[in-house]
């Protein structure tokens, strides 16, 4: 096996890193699923800016499902699994989801800045069609940057510790091709979005400060809602920046000190990478804090998984008896033995399947 794909860490560190990623993956999937289920339950009531939060949940769960299993397998294997092909795949997915996340947060900041402080009837309004087009543009933008290394501009490569792949930061300075790609990528996909996030939320804070000084008594409710939504967006953005800044710092150190890679302990390069992956957990739980209905959805999802797996393995007659005993529970089994909270999990007579009847707590 290529030495670049061999872990530079001890088997013990690899094991704990893999266990950490398992926990992060599970929390990310369940947390973001709760956000998506909550959004799906009230799809007709979603405001246009809320689609950005939904998009953020999609990117987080996409990263958890498409990337973390490969990282976990590599950590427990004490070497990267799959060689060059899986490394390209991992780098591609990482580029798409990370750029989509930061661009979504930047657009979210702009939207909140334009909306904050404006009266609900006369202020700036964003239609769902407009936001949907912007979200599509974000995905195309991220996909384009992810394809550049495959087309010859820049490249993907293994991380210094050997258990992950990303942009080959060490290629900076070795050729004009790598230097121009990394510098352009850093400016357009890191620095500018971060500046937009920082300055828009400073602007929001100033607008709220001025608005609350002159707010009328009949606008208190609107002001509280505005403050709550803005705090949620600020918290999500700050969490993302805090999670990714250490990784960016180490990556830029690698850019300008490619000859000194051996001087940095591989464990030091591993920590920022693991910390950055935790960003997929922050977003849904911040959202859950500000939207209690989503928290109930998360608990209901947990009960649903247990309940469906339990009743799915029971004979129809036993399920019928069980249903009479748990009529008040979240997983109701009706007289014909069909679990209507588990869509398609238990076949109904005649080949039909039960319909989902989840409700927000």
Automatic annotation (TrEMBL):
Pfam families: 7tm_1. Residues 31-287 form the G-protein coupled receptors family 1 profile domain. One of its GO terms (cellular component) is membrane. InterPro entries: GPCR_opsins (IPR050125), GPCR_Rhodpsn (IPR000276), GPCR_Rhodpsn_7TM (IPR017452), Retinal_BS (IPR027430). The chain crosses the membrane at residues 15-39, 51-76, 88-111, 131-153, 181-208, 229-255, 267-290. Keywords: Chromophore, G-protein coupled receptor, Membrane, Photoreceptor protein, Receptor, Retinal protein, Sensory transduction, Transducer, Transmembrane, Transmembrane helix. GO terms for molecular function: G protein-coupled receptor activity; photoreceptor activity. The keyword Cell division does not apply. It is found in: Membrane. The keyword Phosphoprotein does not apply. One of its GO terms (biological process) is phototransduction. It is a multi-pass membrane protein. Gene3D superfamilies: Rhodopsin 7-helix transmembrane proteins (1.20.1070.10). This is Opsin-5-like. The lineage of its organism: Eukaryota, Metazoa, Chordata, Craniata, Vertebrata.
